[in-house]
Amino acid sequence: MMIRVLLVDDHPMVLKGLRLFMQTQEDMEVVGEASNGEEAMQKVAVHQPDVVLMDLMMPVMDGVEATRRIKASHPEVKVIVLTSFSDRDHVVPAIRAGAEGYQLKEIDADDLAMTVRAAYKGMTQLHPQAAGHLVSHVTGDSREERSTIQVLTPREREVLQLITAGKSNKEIAAELTIAEKTVKTHVSSILGKLDLQDRTQAAVFAMKQGWFE
User: Fold this and answer.
1) Is 127 in the same domain as 159?
2) Which PROSITE patterns does the entry mention (predicted)?
3) Which element (helix H / strand E) includes 76?
4) Does the pLDDT of residue 132 top 70, yes or no?
5) Average pLDDT, whole number, for the chain?
6) Which of 213, 165, 159 is nearest to 191 (CA)?
């Protein structure tokens, strides 16, 4: 059987390269392409792929949030993160969101094909750096890291401060002059980095840490 693959990346040249690569694989076919996480969710519903190759940093909706939502509505779909980022702040949230694989864009073509086939069979393939970060997180090293606000980007700190002040996503978007969807993306990233479940936990955690007045 052919492995049906959906390609998700906001760079046209990356999509073109992946599509050409897939055409060389006798057991794989590209059933669709998307340039952001929201579009990826729509394409998954329409094309029902077996495997999604998912970029992380994209407009509208990032790869972590898209992965989380895809796995929630289509748990049978396998998601492989294909990104340029190998740090823990990207690896752990992606795996927690449900990704079956995590590879860097520098990956060898044969290794990428192996990763797609492994994911299709329900197995996990991780880049060595990603695997190391995941093991470190599981053993508890991340607990020390999350106690410092430095794990968040400057924009995420602004969003968290407004969450702590009781602002809604709409109010935060208006105050920071950004789209409400962008606020949702930041909130998802904050929860992933701090290993928390919802906005309330994030506000309580920030206050306990004494990050904001």
Assistant:
1) no
2) HTH_LUXR_1 (PS00622), HTH_LUXR_2 (PS50043), RESPONSE_REGULATORY (PS50110)
3) none
4) no
5) 87
6) 159
Q: Where does a domain end: 77, 104, 138?
A: 138
Q: Which of 82, 113, 138 is the last residue of a domain?
A: 138
Q: What percent of the chain has pLDDT over 90?
A: 55
- 161 CB-side CA count, 13 A: 13
Query: Measured between alpha carbons, how far is 40 from 129 in angstroms, rounded to an integer?
Result: 26
**pLDDT at position 96, please?**
87
Q: Are residues 24 and 87 in the same domain?
A: yes
The number of folded domains in the chain is: 2
Per-residue confidence band for 125, with pLDDT thresholds at 50, 70 and 90: confident
Token representation of residue 85:
């980022």
Is the distance from CB of 86 to CB of 129 less than 8 angstroms?
A: yes
Closest Cα partner for 34 from 44, 48, 24?
44
Residue type for 203, please? A
Which DSSP state fits 151? G
* pTM of the predicted model as reported, rounded to 2 decimal places: 0.64
Whether 55 and 69 have beta carbons less than 8 Å apart is answered as no
Coil/strand/helix, residue 51:
strand
Phi/psi class of residue 4: alpha, beta or left (left: φ > 0; alpha: ψ in -120 to 50)?
A: beta
140 token code pair: 């508890």
Residue 178: what pLDDT? 92
Instruction: Dig out the tokens for 169 from the structure.
Output: 């996503």
